[in-house]
Amino acid sequence: PLAAGSGGNPSAVGKLAGLITLRDGVAATMQSQLDETARGLITAFAETSSSQPDAAGLFTWSGAPGIPAAGTLVDGLAGSISVNAAMTPALLRDGGANGAAYVLNTSGSSYANLLIAYGDRLDQPMAFDAAAGITATSSVADYAANSIGWFEGVRQQASTTADAKEALATRTAEALSNDTGVNVDQEMSLLLDLEHTYQASARMMKTVDDMLDALMNAVG
Q: What is the DSSP string of 94-143?
């Protein structure tokens, strides 16, 4: 059976195993982080009441009117999050999309405390599920940034690994060619050595021939 690799370095076990890693590892982790980001948005923009449990506000989901449990991953949440159709600009400012118990504005049209609170919640730490692969306590804004950073890290690792293994494959092919094929540079070097050896032998033969001629002339 095929075994998936890990992280951005799966290619040691082949392309198909690398695709399995992408599907079951990287993509699944990224999906979990998107689900947690969606949960953070639902929580940050939830309506609160002193007498009722928190309820989905600007963002809603398939489990509304309640909000997802804190620090717990909800699989597929990013696919079900949506803007609450019951929300209007006035309800966003005043509260009350889930009923009168959630209305917080008692000051008229100048009321802005709830809008400010929504912005503050985006920067307040909250619990995230560690199963998503990044920090378990963070603000929604930081969590989204960390998720992008995590994915970029995986991409960089995969790119670096691919470059290194491409270079290794090239070197391996060259080594194989040198051992089993014709290396033009090496063959030219051997040819030059052979030519030099022939020239040296030819000079030696001429010298011997000249010596024999001289000897024959001397005794003749």
A: H--TT-GGG----S-TT--HHHHHHHHHHTS-EE--GGGSS-SEE-HHHH
CA nearest 62: which of 46, 81, 75, 47?
81
The two three-digit tokens of residue 214, written as one number? 């001289």
The first and second tokens of residue 44, run together, are 């940050």
Phi then psi dihedrals of residue 202, to 5 deg: -65, -40
Q: What is the pLDDT of residues 59-72, one digit of tens each?
A: 999 999 999 999 99
Provide the residue ranges of all domains of the chain, joining segments of one domain with +.
11-161, 185-220
Q: How far is CA 132 from CA 37, 77, 199, in A?
A: 10, 13, 75
- CB atoms under 10 Å from CB of 42, counted, come to 26
* Residue 164 reports pLDDT greater than 90: no
Task: Report strand pairing: 82-83 vs 137-138.
Answer: unpaired
114: nearest Cα among 88, 84, 91: 91
